[in-house]
Write a structure and sequence with these properties.
By secondary structure, this protein is α/β, with parallel strands linked by helices. Helices cover 31% and strands 18% of the residues.
Length: 724
């Protein structure tokens, strides 16, 4: 380009051109400068619900296309007034070229509706919403990335009503609280947790709840953790603050949850909200700025090593993950649960925000929108569409419909746990470096047609290939999804595999009905002897038993065996409650129950020995746990001993897998490693053995991070074999 002699600094009109595109920025929480203006009577944006500047406000959720100019956003329908235009054009103003700039005269407007009556005016609408909340009602609040349902956090009756309307079961709610001071009334907050809470991303942070915290027990039943969120939009700040001249009570903490039926996608479209929110909310606090890309709240835990993402969405999406090299373009469609998709463009991978569980038509539509948004913004036509190997996944069916035909992208099928390991390598920039990947989760389709989930995988210098270096001993799983919802049924399968009689004195046996026990007994009768060829189990023709090597299912079985949870109302409930129980006992008590044993030792009864083929045998553990339960040993001690045994088996598996491969790096991935206690125990043992340990920091270890691994593997494979 020929240099031009210019004086001063200008931002000129955008022009379309070929070549790399700029990045789409994530949404950013209201900055301190805007917050001061919001509550400053001398400011012309005093109490303006849509105050923003170049440092904060909506980005990702309002951008329709690049370059990021106002006409390419949902603010295009709000022409700037003359005063906003002057600020927009002034290089010395902090709103210089702030695309969502607006004020009371030219910006979006807030309104409240209830029973067909509409209240306009920002303060009037906020007062009306505060009145409904104070009366114990549920208010739908339109935010930056979609609608939320809000209610008083201190009202058990209201929270119970919200659960019933959402069909949410016992799954914990998050709470929105006014500021850091009110957050400290709810939970213990470390320096790292404070940093995360007050960051520009403003995620939901899982904190340890304080005894006597002013929230109803029904907010997070039986859970010592509380998801806490600080306000990130001006509307939130206004809703939690007194309105001048109003005498309405002002909440300082609200339950804030996505406005949807449980497991369905977030409601974000106003026309859809008019239909779907009728049965969920008593009133609606909304506005007229359209949302182009729905985006849920992110959820994290803070560990000594850094953040552990549980759900990657607002504030983090769509920030790219560098791949370290330019690769062919790939669209990865993710998994079935906690779905997200991922697009590679050049040397970067762009993950969508959390989409949801693909078992709903509304989620499939949301998935279509997410794919369209990614490919439109990046102007990329993928060469390959990558999907999970599972033949029944809806995401896989979508991939088959859009790939593999004439003129369509190639289709790449990726084994589930291989993708988990690759996502961990990709986020650490370690693709091509050998690693032992420990991939523990609930369900993943194996290359042998059985259900995997307790996997020790070796990935070498060619990350597109993997070796199954070890795995949990398979057990026959009866009933598919019905069994997953009933850990007591899973426990009976493990007891049968271990040769333990179904004694009604055992909690898991007592929890099953007579009909369930009879059906399971008939199914298990004649199943191959578990001592015969462990690890090579196949589905027995004519039965409904599928061999399953899932660590997640072992957690479910142990939770039931110890009497913790026999039926679940949300995913991983039994495993979560088992971790909570285990945290109440000490390692010393657990070791006393287990006996002194090191990695791989079979001297202790409560152990998971690893054999010469790398198979982790759960049968000695199940026998010992059944005996200890019958003897009256405290459930918390046994839960802790189980966690220790799993950690010891991970260390033993790492030793076994690394011995012949000279590998000193171990990665922990899969949904089971959302368990902070287990992760800590595994890390301590692996590092004591001089292994480097990698865990997730950018994408979740659960299936929310799966698409990144799929995309990386498919792109690398396409680079090796162009056109195939």
């Amino acid at each position: 380009m020929t240099p031009r002699a210019e004086d001063g600094f200008l931002i000129v009109a955008s022009a379309n051109a070929s070549g790399p595109r700029t990045l789409v920025p994530p949404d950013v929480a209201t900055c301190d400068a805007c917050l001061r203006e919001l509550f400053d009577p001398a400011s012309r944006r005093y109490r303006h619900p849509f105050i923003t500047c170049t440092d904060c406000g909506p980005r990702f959720t309002i951008i329709k296309d690049l370059p990021y100019d106002r006409p390419a956003t949902t603010m295009a329908g709000f022409p700037m007034c003359e005063r906003c235009r002057r600020e927009y054009r002034d290089p010395g103003d902090r709103r210089f070229h702030a695309q969502p700039i607006a004020c009371h005269d030219c910006g979006p407007t807030l309104r409240f509706t209830r029973d067909g009556t509409t209240v306009t005016g920002a303060d009037e609408a906020v007062v009306a919403a505060q009145r409904v909340l104070a009366e114990g009602g549920i208010v739908a609040v339109k935010g930056i990335g979609g609608y939320h349902l809000a209610c008083r956090a201190d009202s058990p009756e209201t929270v119970t009503m919200l659960r019933q309307r959402k069909a949410r079961g016992d799954k914990p709610f998050a709470v929105l609280t006014r500021n850091l001071s009110t957050a400290r009334l709810l939970a213990e907050i470390s320096t790292g947790e404070q940093r995360a809470l007050t960051s520009s991303a403003r995620p939901i942070v899982l904190l340890r709840r304080l005894p006597g915290a002013p929230v109803a027990d029904t907010v997070a039943p039986g859970n010592p953790l509380l998801g806490v969120l600080l306000p990130y939009s001006p509307v939130h700040h206004l809703l939690l603050a007194p309105v001048p001249g109003s005498t309405e009570p002002v909440p300082h903490t609200l339950v804030l949850t996505s406005a949807n039926i449980s497991d369905e996608p977030l409601v974000f479209d106003d026309a859809e909200a008019d239909v779907r929110l009728t049965f969920l909310a008593d009133a609606v606090l909304t506005h007229d700025r359209p949302i182009h890309v729905p985006c849920d709240d992110s959820v994290i835990r803070v560990l000594p090593e850094g953040e552990l993402p549980i759900r990657r969405a607002r504030g983090y999406a769509p920030l790219p993950v560098p791949l370290g090299r330019v690769l062919p373009s790939v669209l990865a469609v993710g998994g079935e649960l906690k779905n997200s998709c991922c697009l590679t463009d050049g040397d970067s991978a762009f993950c969508s925000a959390h989409i949801g569980d693909m078992g709903h038509l509304a989620t499939l539509r949301a998935f279509d929108r997410a794919v369209t948004q990614l490919t439109t913004v990046h102007r990329v036509t993928p060469e390959v569409i990558a999907a999970d190997l599972h033949p029944a996944y809806q995401s896989g069916k979508w991939a088959h419909q859009h790939a593999g035909g004439p003129g369509e992208p190639a289709l790449g099928l990726i084994q589930h746990h291989h993708a988990h390991v690759a996502s961990l390598l990709a986020e650490h920039g370690r693709l091509g470096e050998p690693m032992i990947g420990v991939a523990f989760d609930g369900t993943g389709y194996g290359t042998d047609g059985t259900i995997w989930g307790g996997e020790i995988l070796y990935v070498g210098t060619d990350p597109t290939r993997f070796e199954r270096a070890g795995h949990l001993l398979p057990v026959p799983l009866a009933g598919g999804d019905a069994a997953v919802r009933s850990p007591c049924r899973i426990a009976l399968g493990y007891l049968a595999a271990a040769g333990v009689a179904w004694d009604p004195a055992l909690p898991s046996v007592a929890a099953c009905t007579d009909a369930e026990r009879a059906t399971l007994a008939a199914l298990h009768a004649g199943y191959p002897d578990p001592d015969g060829a462990p690890g090579r189990a196949r589905r027995r023709p004519g039965t409904h038993l599928v061999p399953c090597s899932s660590m997640g299912r072992l957690f479910d079985a142990v939770a039931s065996l110890l009497g913790v949870r026999h039926r679940i109302s949300y995913e991983a409930q039994a495993a979560i409650e088992l971790e909570i129980l285990a945290a109440q006992a000490s390692d010393a008590a657990a070791e006393l129950a287990r006996g002194a044993a090191g990695p791989g030792s079979t001297d202790a009864e409560l152990t998971l020995p690893v054999d010469a083929d790398g198979v982790i045998d759960h049968r000695p553990l199940i026998r010992a746990l059944a005996a200890e339960v019958a003897a009256g040993t405290a459930a918390a001690v046994l839960a802790r001993a189980f966690h220790v045994a799993v950690a010891e088996s991970v260390a033993a598996s790492a030793i076994h897998a690394a011995r012949a491969r000279a590998v000193r790096t171990v990665g922990l991935t899969g949904g089971v490693f959302q368990n902070v206690l287990l992760t800590r125990l595994c890390r301590a043992r692996l590092e004591a053995l001089a292994f480097e340990v990698l865990t997730h920091r950018l994408v979740p270890p659960n299936d929310g991070g799966l698409a990144l691994g799929q995309a990386a593997l498919a792109a690398l494979a396409a680079a090796k074999q162009p056109g195939q």
